[in-house]
Write a structure and sequence with these properties.
With 111 residues, this protein is mainly alpha-helical. The protein has one domain. 78% of the residues lie in helices and 0% in strands. It has helices spanning 3-11, 16-41, 46-65, 76-107. The protein is rod-shaped, with a radius of gyration of 19 Å. The chain starts with a helix and ends with a helix. 32% of the residues are buried. It comes from Nocardioides thalensis.
Length: 111
């Protein structure tokens, strides 16, 4: 029996780690988009934090429970991407919140 065919077929299976990264990455992209919009509008966006925390949390969970390294089918590469996107969304959302505080102080009349 030719085992190379079995190994190749297993490399393209949808494992649990890969499936979870398919959930985590869109949350990370959503967090980055909402964070960029919050920064541009200089406002607080709680949805940015929620999406970014979900992405960062799922990415961390996948990375901690992974059986192997990159290319093993455990979703390691997708988990790292989800964590980076989640962190970027949090930073953008935080900067948007700081910009809203700064604008609020500018518009307030001096006492």
């Amino acid at each position: 029996m030719d085992t190379t065919h079995l190994v190749t077929a297993a490399a393209y299976d949808l494992t649990t780690g890969r499936a979870l990264t398919l959930v985590a990455i869109p949350f990370g992209v959503l967090g980055v988009v909402l964070g960029a919009r919050a920064l541009r509008a200089a406002r607080l966006s709680p949805a940015t934090g929620v999406a970014s925390i979900v992405s960062l949390g799922l990415g961390t969970l996948i990375l901690v429970t992974a059986d192997g390294g990159p290319g093993s089918g455990s979703g390691v590469v997708g988990a790292v991407l989800a964590m980076v996107l989640g962190a970027a969304g949090m930073v953008l959302g935080g900067l948007g919140h700081l910009a809203s505080i700064r604008n609020e102080r500018r518009t307030r009349a001096p006492a």
